[in-house]
Amino acid sequence: MTVNLRAIEPEDLDLLYRIENDVRLWNVGTSNVPYSRYVLHDYVAHVTNDIYTDRQVRMMIDNEEGKTVGIVDLVNFDPANRRAELGLIILNDFRRQGYAMATLEQIHDYARRILHLHQIYVYIDERNEASLSLFRKVDYIESAHIPDWLLDGEQYHDALLFQHVL
Predict the structure, then answer these.
(1) Nearest to 57, CA basis, from 47, 66, 65
(2) What is the pLDDT of residue 27?
(3) pLDDT at residue 21, rounded to an integer
(4) pLDDT score for 160
(5) Whether the Cβ atoms of residue 59 and residue 88 lie closer than 8 Å to each other
(6) Cβ contacts of residue 150 below 8 Å, gap of 6+?
(7) Using CA atoms, how far apart are residues 65 and 44, in angstroms rounded to an integer?
(8) Mean pLDDT in runs of 10 for the chain (166 residues)?
(9) Beta strand 119-125 with 83-90: parallel, antiparallel or unpaired?
């Protein structure tokens, strides 16, 4: 399985808008507010894709046929400790086909060779069995259990912190 990680283009605005405003995804990350098209358009227009300037880098994930299958980002970049938090979303139609695993392989290589990061970490809702299984398969180490970490809009859920040394 091969994926291509690429910069966000203006043509990705509609997909980015759908992803960022999908309330079903709010409980898997730390964002739980809607984004306007204007805010996302401004982001796409002004992002430098320089992790030192933006403190994050976001990339679209394309499959071998050129279809966008998801988005991956490294956020909360900490240059002093050379680490960043990982975010990964594979669109529903493309889940359980190997795209997440292929994306993790590429983002690890990019983070190690290009960004010179030492570590990537991810917070996962303890109920998200698919994500837990994926990250365990790629040698992420469960480092902490964090009670009441993620709010789904109505109630808090525990999260697990996983770390991966590159």
Answers:
(1) 47
(2) 56
(3) 75
(4) 97
(5) no
(6) 27, 28, 30, 123, 125, 156, 157, 158, 159
(7) 24
(8) 93 86 61 67 78 92 97 96 96 95 98 97 95 96 95 87 97
(9) parallel
- Does the pTM surpass 0.85? The reply is yes
pLDDT of residue 80: 96
The position carrying tokens 């680490």 is 83
Q: Which long-range contacts (CB under 8 A, 24 or more apart) does 129-138 make?
A: 130/95, 130/96, 131/28, 132/160, 134/100, 134/101, 134/104, 135/162, 135/164, 137/101, 138/101, 138/104, 138/105, 138/108, 138/164
